[in-house]
């Protein structure tokens, strides 16, 4: 075990529970974590169903991601974005991720109009108008598809779902 302190934010954890959670967070297999924390083989799955042990594991993983993972991820993204030998698309993706994480929000394709009513506030007539506009838009986007001629009349057609 690397010796990370498992915070006891969920109530009293036994020393065994703390050691088991720490071993799991450090990447130990269930059987190794059982052995390192003094539990009998095969008891790990029940330990991981214990809400306090599970909360301790999740809490420590989240803390380590913030404390250790985020700086590494940032360094990698910065390195990729600055690497002129990297493919342009990869650099752009890294730059977009950096901007997004810094709080710069991507512009939407089409911002909602401020005078747009909520559907629940519309009258029947207004709803019908919206439906008609949507159907018209869909009809404009539709591409005609012509089935090959089969020589069958509609009354001779076979229902393939029967």
Helix content: 40-55%
Overall mean pLDDT: 82
Count of individual helical segments: 6
Structural class by sheet pairing and helices: mainly alpha
The gross shape turns out to be: elongated
Give the ordered list of helices and strands.
HHHHHH
Strand content: under 5%
Distance between the termini: 63 Å
* Major sheet characteristics: none
| Estimated radius of gyration | 29 Å
Poorly predicted ranges (pLDDT <50, ≥5 residues)? none
User: What is the tally of beta strands?
Assistant: 0
Structural write-up:
- Helix 1 packs antiparallel against helix 2 and helix 1 packs parallel to helix 4.
- The protein has a domain of 87 residues.
- The protein is elongated and about 75 Å long.
- Helices cover 54% and strands 0% of the residues.
- By secondary structure, it is mainly α.
Summarize the structure.
With 162 residues, the protein is mostly helical. It has helices at 15-25, 30-36, 44-49, 51-82, 88-101, 124-141.
Fold topology:
Elements: H1 15-25, H2 30-36, H3 44-49, H4 51-82, H5 88-101, H6 124-141
Structure keywords:
54% helix, 0% strand, 162 residues
């Amino acid at each position: 075990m690397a010796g990370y302190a498992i915070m006891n934010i969920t109530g009293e954890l036994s020393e065994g529970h703390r050691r088991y959670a720490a071993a799991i967070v450090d990447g130990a297999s269930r059987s190794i974590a059982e052995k390192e924390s003094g539990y009998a083989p095969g008891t790990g799955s029940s330990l991981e169903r214990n809400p306090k042990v599970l909360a301790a594991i999740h809490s420590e993983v989240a803390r380590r991601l913030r404390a250790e993972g985020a700086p590494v991820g940032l360094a990698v993204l910065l390195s990729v974005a600055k690497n002129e030998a990297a493919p342009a698309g990869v650099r752009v993706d890294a730059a977009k991720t950096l901007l997004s994480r810094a709080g710069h929000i991507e512009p939407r394709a089409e911002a909602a109009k401020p005078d747009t009513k909520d559907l629940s506030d519309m009258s029947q007539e207004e709803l019908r108008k919206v439906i008609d506009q949507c159907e018209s838009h869909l009809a404009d986007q539709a591409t005609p598809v012509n089935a090959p001629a089969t020589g069958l009349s509609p009354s001779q057609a076979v229902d393939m779902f029967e």
